[in-house]
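Appendix B. Chain record.
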Amino acid sequence: MEHLIRVQNEYDRQVLVWLRGRIGDAALQSAARRVTSDGKKPYLSTICRLLNIRPPSRRTFADEARKTHRAVGERYLETIRQILGQAVPGHEKTGHAARSQALLF
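Structure tokens predicted for this chain:
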């Protein structure tokens, strides 16, 4: 889609992905062609104004990314806890009270 629309930074890329999911490629291409002048690619903000759509803020995208990163981290930690919680065959626990290593985290 960047061949039709001017994308200048990461925020523009995020808005483009969001917009494609919201209105679809066909509508986006149509809007881009309507505002194209002199063969120059239109800015994404121009297309949003034409469609009367206000994209999410930078903060909203950052919050969503943070939630995603946290969820991935939690899944990794859960896998690590499961691995550490498994008994190792052939190793007898002696001395201290036997305690699952998963409880340490």
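Further analysis of this model is presented in Appendix C.
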